[in-house]
Amino acid sequence: MSKSPQHPFALYNIDSLLSEEEKAIRDVVRTFVDSTIRPNVAEWFEKGHLPARDLAKECGALGLMGMHLEGYGCAGMSAVPYGLADLELEAGDSGIRSMVSVQGSLAMYAIHAFGSEEQKNAWLPGMAAGDLIGCFGLTEADYGSNPSGMRSSAKRDGDDWLLNGSKMWITNGTIADLAIVWAQTDDGIRGFIVPTDLPGFTANDVKHKMSLRASVTAELVFDNVRLPADAVLPGVVGLRGPLSCLNEARFGIIFGTVGAGRDCLETAIDYAIDREQFGKPIAAYQLTQRKLADMSVDLGNAMLLAIHLGRLKEAGTLRPEQVSVGKMNNARIALEIARETRGILGGNGITLEYPIIRHMNNLESVYTYEGTNEMHTLVIGEALTGIAAFR
Predict the structure, then answer these.
(1) Catalytic residues
(2) Which of 41, 45, 123, 142 has the smallest number of CB atoms closer than 10 Å to its CB?
(3) Ramachandran angles phi, psi of 168, nearest 5°
(4) What is d(CA 277, CA 279) in angstroms, rounded to the nearest whole number?
């Protein structure tokens, strides 16, 4: 006798781990994704275009920009609601979550954590509203996993700074009103708030992407960009600044990848129930059920890990190596689910009529950005052995 299908998260009773407020926030973001993102994202992906400024204002109106930050127009939410919002956004598309994550967890967080009071008041309210868009310039073409080797530099020129160099793979780069740029100085690596309308600042679209196509990706070039003395973030010197920002964004990825995996799995379950071969639904075959069962267990475990790490973050005890555990595990599981569910859909799995191939392509980027799988493996290895093996 057939029974009613059960959602994968129901196997774990995930909702019982969330407060009513947390579920309400999740549902608001899910409704936004269902009404605004899902009907349009396949076309955006196919055309390599994102109406980012309009979406930024809508996300700002919902309180999603810098939602985990306090004051300055930010929502001041705790870690799990922030993660749940990222989960729902990435269930729509990784590019949408990236836009919001870079704005809040990289650009806004850098100003909030390390900026002066004047800098916070000047920039954060407009960014929280989605009226101003920020980007985060750390990675360079030749220095990804090793940001300490960056060539971008800022030199004193009287009271001013002269910024030279370039950054690569910068989300929001060509639409940003400001860039948080990390550069070598005589004092060490420093962060700068760089308005993008300054002479010598250029942003170029990265073209021919096959992943994150519903996302703005850019190269930033600085040619003697003159910055005033108060452009520097006064609260930090060295890599601790950008790496702490990255940990904020990686936390969002821990939840976000679960959203992409969930969307793939939901799609595959619905498809398997409806698709008939040899006189019955393919969901009735043991091989298909084994695939669905294995993926549901993996996804449920990933969700439990995300919530657990969120509770640690709320308690103020989350450590960087634990963020690496979550990012490495959940990005890997989501990508494996995308690949397996693509196979369940057969030829239909490669079309944009279904979301799976789009998620699969996106997750190939998520798997390696903000720390490759190998780098997170070595962070965990160092935590376990006390021996750094990065070289």
Answers:
(1) 370
(2) 142
(3) -135, 155
(4) 5
